[in-house]
Write a structure and sequence with these properties.
This protein has about 350 residues and is an alpha+beta fold. It has a 4-stranded mixed beta sheet, sandwiched between helices. Helix 3 crosses helix 4. The longest helix has 17 residues. About 40% of the residues are buried. The chain binds iron/sulfur cluster.
């Protein structure tokens, strides 16, 4: 990959996390960038660094504050894992992020790619990294006809990533490939004429760039219909919210209680059943408040929110970590997922 670093020296992107490189800045930016666009990450990264400039400050913070700062970035298990890892780094490594990829991989939320990125970019060590961009470039550069993401091809791609790694500038090499993948070797219509690797790129020579990388066809994404209840207290000013269990989707985030519609149920029957099962109270489902759609990684939801009336029983958090009654103003300080934040915002001024 002979011209790669010359190209990088002239074309490197100016990104906030590249301005002062450290294992910590690399770690935080790489986790934020998983499944998330660079432009979306920038303001989150800057806010994060202002509030949590180092591992120690992060480890000492409350998880709710960490989730609140992450709110809107999605994939909240990433924030919880960063927080847990920070505490391990303080308790087991004296607050120093390890540079050895094997030690890094033992930390919560750090996989092969992130370990390679931290070791090479943050610590300057000769460690390979393989993300979606680099995988695509290698599959094209070597014209790999086998599907990527299979254990066998992954092994081959890691070997090729290691063989090609520039030993003198491993961090720059990995960043150069990331930049090349986001600007030139694009998923659709790669800009081969502008590419520093064009002379040796086998898929370009064979005319197969459009067919590489070969992907296994993804399963169709399921679509769920769910309901949520807006249950006011007697004053009508506070609403009942539950905190999701720490593990799993949106763990630790606050939400309007509710759940999935079952076969043969009306939406009203669904919300009453869910609230009975989850909170052990009886409610009456009133008028519909709104319909919200959202796509998660592995499924889509259409959520129907109802204004409800609390009929009887003291609510208990049977399926949640906690529950509480909050005004719309108090909700602003709670970490919430996208749909629940939209409901809370729509409630402001209406309640
Ligand atoms: S020549 Fe084209 S296909 Fe090959 S690495 Fe460059 S942009 Fe990608």
């Amino acid at each position: 990959m002979k011209n790669l670093l010359d190209w990088f020296d002239q074309n490197r992107r100016d990104l906030p996390w590249r301005r002062s490189r450290s294992p910590y800045s690399t770690w935080i930016s790489e986790i934020m960038l998983q499944q998330t666009r660079v432009e979306t990450v920038k303001p989150y990264y800057e806010r994060w660094m202002e509030r949590f400039p180092d591992v120690q400050t992060l480890a000492a913070a409350d998880e709710q504050e960490v989730l609140k700062l992450w709110e809107g970035l999605g994939y909240y298990s990433r924030a919880r894992s960063i927080h847990k890892a920070a505490r391990v780094i303080v308790s087991e490594y004296g607050g120093e992020i390890p540079s050895d990829p094997a030690q890094l991989r033992k930390l919560p939320g750090i996989g092969d790619y992130t370990a390679g990125a931290i070791a090479s970019i943050g610590c300057g060590l000769p460690a390979a990294a393989l993300d979606g961009n680099i995988r695509r470039i290698l599959a094209r550069y070597y014209d790999i006809a086998d599907p990527v993401r299979t254990p066998q091809t992954e092994k081959l791609l890691w070997k090729l990533a290691e063989e090609n790694l520039n030993q003198k500038r491993p961090g720059d090499h990995n960043e150069a490939l990331m930049d090349l993948g986001s600007a030139i070797c694009l998923p659709e219509n790669p800009q081969c004429l502008l590419c520093p690797l064009r002379e040796d790129c086998l898929s370009r020579q064979h005319g197969t760039t459009a067919e590489r990388p070969v992907m296994i066809k993804a399963e169709p994404i399921p679509h769920y219909i769910v309901t949520a209840a807006l249950i006011p207290d007697k004053s009508g000013e506070r609403f009942l919210l539950t905190k999701r269990p720490a593990k799993g989707l949106l763990g630790g985030m606050w939400e309007f209680p509710g759940g999935k519609q079952e076969a043969g149920e009306t939406l009203e029957e669904c919300i009453c059943r869910e609230i009975r099962e989850e909170l052990d109270i009886a409610i009456h489902a009133g008028e519909q408040f709104g319909v919200y759609k959202h796509a998660y990684t592995h499924f889509k939801v259409t959520l129907h929110a109802f204004r409800c009336e609390h009929i009887s029983g003291d609510p208990k958090p049977l399926a949640a970590d906690e529950l509480g009654w909050f005004t719309t103003e108090e909700m602003q300080a709670l970490p919430m997922g996208k749909i629940d934040r939209m409901i809370a915002q729509n409630l402001t001024g209406l309640s």
